[in-house]
Amino acid sequence: MRTLFLTIILLLFCNISYAERVTAKGDHSYFGDTSDDVACEHALRKAKLKALEKVLGQTISSEELEKCSTVDGKTNCERNQFFLSSFGGELTKTKEVNREIKSVKIENSKDANICLIEIKTDVKRTIQKLDPSFDFNVKLNEYNFKDGDNLIIDVELNKPMYLTIFQILPYEKKDYQVHKIFPNKLDKDNFIEGNNLKLPRKGKFEIYYPENNNKKSIDEYLFFVGSKDDIKWLDKYDKMENFRERYIDKNMLNYTHRQYTIFR
């Protein structure tokens, strides 16, 4: 009985997720066509990204930075990287300890301002029991799309499983950010028994550029979840954070994600 009691205590102790308190700084340079509040929002996001990087060890690669900068600027890259880093960790008890706006000189350009922000926050790793006994890989037919293009997904897997695919729209502020696209009304059976699968099996996945968006391009994500059990997911989640809380509570599954860009 004493051994059983000690085993239970150890299991509970091992499942505790400790947060690490860190300090991080972020800055954003801007001109008169950008407000102080908007610039400081960018600076705050950079500070949060650096806090996540300190604990998770993830950094934006030069290849990612070059791709994003060519398409839609460095700010968009950092926004995407912060979004992806949130899969592996979360920030709590974030406190802004310093905010400062300064005028700066930029070579061969007009004068600009810079917002400097320093935060203290708790960073907690996402701890999840993934199932190493099964694995899968996904490939998209393209990673750059235009409005009206069709998306095709190839899936390779090593054993039967339930597959669920979500489309994530990080730019969406008024509507739902997460939508389940497979299974769907046309194709309801998501138990995959073969080694290969091409989706969609029925109908088509048509790409469209979001309305009321004046950017040259936009990034979206597909999130793939493989599981032994048939999980009753919702068809949509209003925020990425709510979806994240749902999937990290599930054990015995595997997941991966893919990013793609839509051009006007």
Provide structural commentary.
- The longest helix has 21 residues, at 36-56.
- The protein has helices at 2-14, 36-56, 62-72, 74-85, 240-248; strands at 19-30, 89-104, 112-125, 136-140, 144-146, 150-151, 153-157, 161-168, 178-182, 191-192, 196-199, 205-206, 217-227, 236-237, 253-263.
- α3 (62-72) crosses α4.
- The radius of gyration is 21 Å and the shape is globular.
- By secondary structure, the chain is α+β, with helices and mostly antiparallel strands.
- The model is unreliable at 1-16 (pLDDT under 50).
What is the rounded distance between the termini? Answer: 67 Å
- SS element count, helices: 5
- Please estimate the helix content: 25-40%
* General form: globular
Helix-strand sequence = HEHHHEEEEEEEEEEEEEHE
Quickly list its features:
264 residues; alpha+beta; 7-stranded mixed sheet; 3-stranded antiparallel sheet; 5 helices; 25% helix; globular; disordered N terminus
Kindly summarize this structure in a few lines.
25% of the residues lie in helices and 39% in strands. The protein is of the alpha+beta class and 264 residues long. Helix 2 (36-56) packs across helix 4.
